[in-house]
Write a structure and sequence with these properties.
The structure holds 2 protein chains of 2 kinds. Chain A is an all-alpha fold. Chain A has helices at about 15-35, 50-75, 80-100, 115-135, 140-160, 185-215, 215-225, 225-235, 235-265, 275-285, 290-310, 315-330, 335-350; strands at about 175, 180, 180-185, 265. The chains are: A mainly alpha, B mainly alpha.
């Protein structure tokens, strides 16, 4: 059975969580834009740095979606999704630096936006394709796969730290001036990037929802629950895994590309194994295989991180570590699972 | 200013000539005589102060050739002080009184006022300065000659080690004037090691003079000076250039072998660190199917235990290190059992969740250490017997701390292997590894085995930390830097097999070291990582896959 026929037309919004999430996302985005447009002395005014911070959260939410897609629905725990995120980020960073002075002659081609946009998707996609093909073909699964993805991002971190890569070495790429001819520093650009990130999250959310509700999604979940049976029935499990893995990597790449102009820097620390595994805890906290749980988890954990690292930096790692333990032991389905559980109890008692 | 004459006489060093020096200080002379009898061999002749004066007088000339002759005369004389004179002359510390006939040796020329002693009697002569003492100047030719003279003089004196040092210094210093003297030394010398060095020195001189037959003696000699002068000869148009080139090529290839040996040693010692770090991980993963991401932090705890024991026992790094071996094991094992009892036990059969939970624990432990101790790195001192290097020859030297870690790793490995092979616990562990359900039905208490295995794995991690503290500084990030590598070793070697871990760790260490000079440290690591990823394609179960249906 080919992959194309696995998609089945289906109304996206017939699930309650989907349209609630969509409405919350749209209303939230509009609210931020409106609050930012208020005069600066107004009590409800949101200044540019807050909007930029929220924009960064949105790109993290996009990354969490990508991880949830393969972990929640395919049962593949990637501890190296930060690598795809960072590759997309580096593609965008090269585009931004190539505007002024490319670090190496070959990077001049990145000055064209269509080329850069293609690279944002293709670089992580190709890496995922090659890596996934090698891994899935020889049936590397479970913790083995997790460890190898971690080694992958670790290797890339070491490689990008080298100055010979012409990627800025350990400093990374920074000092960006303009994007598509507009200055990056302006308030207008901040809002534009925020909206772009929001729209990307919304589209990716719908896209992932479509995939998971299609027949491809059903095969994914079947693979997650009983891989051997799916194989026996006649599905090429490795093809299914590869397709979804590459899609997930591309989404992560787009998230990275949106992240870079908002924070103004991309460096090898984004490849650090710790970042990738942090992403996993966002998804775990929010709840796997729900998509909206991933969005929620990314937002909550990152908000906590911003607050705590400002107030008491020592406590942050305690909290993050504690989250890992508590979520895996007491909240295996995350906050989303907890809410569903409470709702069921209410229905039973009602 | 004139040098103030000493009121108290302090005998210094070799005081042989004092016996004939007046009766002003009778008591001192007796004491000195006794000392002299104890130090100087009775065959050592001596010269009168007048003769000594004459020998030094000859140095007082502006003509360097005359000075060279005077130095030669001193070396050939019977003066007991001659070595000290030549050494002082070499250092520019031998000088003459500007307004008088006395000679002085400057013992301390820091500052404006120098401490000086009489060059003939070695009596304290108070202080002098640039204005009162005129130090003899030497040039480069004279300096080379003096070094040769001193070296050949030292061949007569001292124990075997001093003579060996002197003989080594002779290499490349032999010249037309000293060759006969050195050759004469060869006949007197008894120690084979010293003879070999003198042989080399003489052969090198003859080769430099164009004697091709002497090349045979130099074959395979690793001394840098031999290599340098041979390459000069080989590059010149001397008649023996081609033969010298051949000998040089032989030396170079021998050197290359030793360098390979050096690389192998570095690789093995790096690999033994990997093995120590990975072996506990391999045990827990093999038995429980659990990836313990906090393993690196257990290593860190072992290293911190070493540091703490060393703080409690200041000045006794050796004892502290020996105590740290059981200490590190117990602390890490206690934490390991705590983790197993409180978290891992409840996540049975959910390996991915266990991975995440233990990762959380690793973050907590890291931050705990940062808060309790400090985020800064701590230095653990090495005991004397782990400092320095074991110099096997010019091309091969083994650092003692790395050698110690290598041996420690092998000992730990042997102990673990014996534990697995011969004890009840080992038997149960192997049973649970092969088939948990079957083992339980045969009466093995799998939960207890899990707990003990986890404690064992954690304890070995603690031992790895003790070993690491001797190689690198101890800090909160110590474990993190080894965790990825140790996972690779486990993946590469296959789980549940100690030999697999040993071979995988050692080979990854060696491969890394071999690649490093070509591509640099970072790229070597990347290549190894990619290599292992590709290797998994071929053998997903690692190097030593367990055979049978369960694999």
């Amino acid at each position: 059975m080919s992959l194309a026929t696995m998609f089945k037309r289906n109304s996206l919004l017939d699930e309650r969580s989907t349209w609630i999430t969509s409405v919350v996302l749209i209303v939230g985005m509009l609210a931020v834009v409106v609050l930012h447009a208020l005069p600066p002395d107004h009590a409800w005014h949101l200044n540019g740095s807050v909007v930029s911070l929220l924009g960064k959260y949105l790109t993290y939410m996009l990354l969490a979606l990508a991880v949830d897609l393969i972990w929640g629905y395919l049962g593949i725990l990637s501890l190296g999704h930060g690598a795809f995120f960072a590759l997309g980020g580096y593609a965008m960073g090269l585009y931004l630096t190539a505007q002024q002075a490319p670090l190496a002659p070959w990077q001049a081609v990145m000055a064209h936006f269509p080329v850069a946009a293609l690279a944002v998707i293709l670089a992580p996609g190709l890496l995922a394709l090659i890596f996934g093909w090698l891994a899935f073909r020889s049936r590397v699964t479970g913790v083995y796969f997790s460890i190898i993805t971690q080694a992958l991002t670790f290797a890339l971190m070491l490689a990008f730290n080298r100055n010979e890569m012409a990627m800025g070495g350990s400093t990374g790429l920074t000092r960006f001036d303009e994007l598509l001819g507009f200055a990056l520093a302006g308030e207008g650009m901040t809002v534009a990037l925020f909206v772009a990130s929001g729209v990307a999250v919304l589209l990716a959310f719908w896209g992932c929802k479509a995939v998971t509700r299609s027949r491809l999604g059903r095969v994914c979940m079947a693979t997650r629950d009983a891989e051997a049976r799916v194989r026996f029935i006649g599905y090429r499990v490795e093809h299914v895994k590869l397709a979804v893995f590459v899609l997930s990597a591309m989404i992560a790449g787009i998230a990275g590309a949106l992240y870079v102009p908002q924070v103004g820097i991309i460096n090898p620390s984004t490849f650090a194994p710790l970042f990738s595994i942090e992403v996993v805890v966002w998804v775990a906290l929010g709840g796997r295989a729900t998509l909206y749980g991933a969005l929620l988890g990314a937002l909550v954990v990152n908000y906590l991180k911003t607050v705590l690292t400002g107030v008491m930096p020592d406590a942050w790692l305690f909290l993050l570590g504690g989250l890992f333990v508590v979520v895996t032991m007491f909240l295996p389905q995350g906050v989303a699972g907890l809410m569903a559980h409470l709702r069921r109890r209410r229905e039973v008692t009602a | 200013m004139t040098p103030t004459h000493a009121t108290n006489v302090r005998p210094e060093g070799m005081t042989g000539s004092q016996a004939g020096f007046g009766f002003r200080h009778c008591l001192t002379v007796v004491a000195v005589l006794l000392a002299w009898l104890a130090i100087v061999s009775p065959v050592q002749a001596e010269v009168t102060p007048q003769r000594a004066q004459a020998l030094l007088q000859a140095l007082d000339t502006d003509d360097f050739d005359a000075k060279a002759e005077a130095a030669q005369a001193i070396a050939a004389s019977d003066a007991a002080q001659k070595t000290r004179w030549l050494e002082a002359l070499l250092d520019g510390r031998l000088g003459r009184e500007r307004r008088g006939e006395r000679f002085y040796i400057i013992t301390d020329d820091s500052g404006r006022e120098w401490s000086i002693i009489d060059a003939i009697t070695f009596e304290d002569a108070g202080t002098g300065s640039r204005r009162s003492v005129d130090a003899f100047r030497i040039n480069n030719a004279l300096r080379t000659q003096l070094q040769g003279l001193i070296a050949s003089l030292s061949l007569d004196e001292g124990d075997e080690a001093t003579r060996l040092e002197a003989a080594k210094r002779l290499i490349g210093e032999v010249d037309a004037q000293s060759v006969d003297a050195v050759a004469a030394k060869l006949d007197d010398e008894e120690s084979p090691a010293v003879r070999a060095e003198i042989d080399t020195a003489l052969a090198l001189y003859r080769v430099e003079q164009g004697d091709a037959s002497a090349l045979a003696t130099l074959r395979g000699n690793l001394d840098t000076r031999v290599r340098n002068s041979l390459s000069t000869i080989a590059a010149s148009d001397a008649p023996i250039a081609a033969e010298a080139g051949e000998t040089l090529a032989g030396i170079e290839s021998k050197r290359a072998w030793y360098e390979r040996g050096q690389t192998l040693f570095f690789g093995l010692s790096a690999g033994s660190v990997l093995v120590l770090a990975a072996i506990g991980l391999a045990i827990t993963f093999g038995v429980m199917g659990v990836i313990n991401m906090a393993h690196g932090e257990l290593i860190m705890l072992g290293a911190y235990t070493t540091w703490m024991i060393q703080q409690l026992l200041p000045g006794q790094p050796g004892l502290a290190l020996l105590l740290a071996i059981p200490g590190g094991f117990l602390v890490a094992a206690a934490f390991g059992i705590l983790i197993e009892r409180s978290v891992i036990r409840f996540l049975k059969g959910r390996p991915l969740e266990t991975l995440l939970a233990t990762f959380g624990i690793s973050l907590i432990l890291q931050q705990l250490v940062r808060t309790v101790f400090s985020p800064l790195n701590r230095r653990v001192n090495s005991p004397d017997w782990l400092q320095g290097a074991w110099q096997i020859n010019e091309a091969l030297s083994l650092t003692l701390n790395r050698l110690g870690v290598l041996l420690f790793c092998l000992v730990v490995f042997a102990a673990l292997w014996a534990l697995m092979r011969y004890t009840r616990l080992g038997l149960e562990v192997r049973a649970v590894t092969q088939n948990r359900a079957m083992a339980r039905s045969m009466g093995v208490r799998a939960a207890r085995v899990d707990m003990l295995t986890f404690g064992l794995g954690a304890g070995v991690a603690g031992l790895a930390g003790v070993a690491l503290s001797q190689i690198t500084n101890v800090g909160p990030n110590l474990g993190q830097s080894y965790i990825v590598d140790s996972f690779l070793v486990v993946v590469f070697g296959g789980v549940g097999n100690l030999w697999g871990t040993l071979v995988a760790g050692m080979s990854l260490g060696v491969i890394n070291q071999v690649l490093q000079p070509w591509v640099g440290a970072v790229l070597a690591k990347v290549i190894v990582l990619v290599g292992v990823i590709l290797f998994i394609q071929k053998r997903p179960q690692g190097l030593f896959a367990p055979k049978g249906r369960t694999s």
